[in-house]
Hints:
This protein has a ten-stranded mixed beta sheet, sandwiched between helices. It has helices at residues 44-48, 103-108, 120-130, 144-152, 163-166, 192-200, 214-218, 238-247, 258-266, 355-364, and strands spanning 9-14, 19-24, 31-38, 56-60, 64-65, 84-86, 89-90, 114-116, 133-139, 172-174, 181-187, 203-209, 224-227, 253-256, 270-287, 293-305, 316-321, 327-332, 337-340. It has 366 residues and is α/β, with parallel strands linked by helices.
Amino acid sequence: MNNTFKKERAILMFENGDFYEGFYEGKPLESGGEAVFNTAMNGYQELITDPSYNGQVVVMTYPMIGNYGINEFDFESNKVWVSGLVTKNYVNHYSHYSAVKSLSEFINSYGYPVISGIDTRHLTISIRDGGQSNLYIAPKEAGIDYIKKKLSSLPKMEGLNLVSNVSCKKVYENKTDFPEFRVTIIDYGVKLNTIRCLNDIKADVTVVPHNFSKKDILDTKPDGILLSNGPGDPQAMSEEAETIKGLLGEKPIFGICLGHQLLSRSLGFKTYKLKFGHHGINQPVKNLKNGKVEITSQNHGFCVDFQGKSADKDTVLTHINLNDNTVEGIKNEKLKAFSVQYHPESSPGPRDSRYLFSEFKAICLR
């Protein structure tokens, strides 16, 4: 008796007309967004629940995905944020003592597809050489003309302000035993592990929506302010940058990823779109102060231009990416403000950069 399940075929189409044929894992759902490739070998549960991936379809370069399923612990938010997941070899029959469901079952429950059978190596090279592009996924039977029409209706990532999609709607707190200081996080799409890392160093944490005013933020009485990660184009977030500008000098500020870009813009620097971004957990970053190299977790498609003519003269470059020499960190001693382009909270990824939370604490208590 043949119990082989016949999978429905899917078409993945790019803006340049290229398309790939693969298979649906689970439900034959339609979706689209900006295609990015991620070089992580594991950590897919944390990845798909990272709000920074809002509006993006993620192509996994590691060939085998899904083998350890989904557990009840490794979430970075309360839902799936990717617009789809593309794999070469998908493993539906997961095997792990803590797993409670399959990866495709979890992603499908939020209305997004999982695709297998794609030459992800070829697809990655295409994105790397041609640059990031929008992608639309639909059943093969829908037809090429239909998919082209749906693809043409997708917005470009450049110019998109997506933080309202992912930010909390009201204030909430995460307290710790025997707190030593207070941190207010401006939520542009914060990961849960950022809050955990702050709790671990004895910080009581208050999380506020992205559109809180300077007064409302200071009314939470923080010893320091953390600007979180998040999705979208920082150039489209002028109101958020203006709020940060008003907070400069009031309290110590630490920015992560999008928070780094918004802090930079508030200091007068410009940002620009990278050709294919940095998405993975193996990005080498050099600390210019001590010469050490950190292996970092990253997820961003925009970058800070440190050569901006209107930039603040008191701000210095602290970290660079060793793959392409792009800006990875800045600091302004006078204003007690610093930021990094990567994710020191990792999850997934190495913990080389966790020291930054302790440095932030030291500045807050100074």
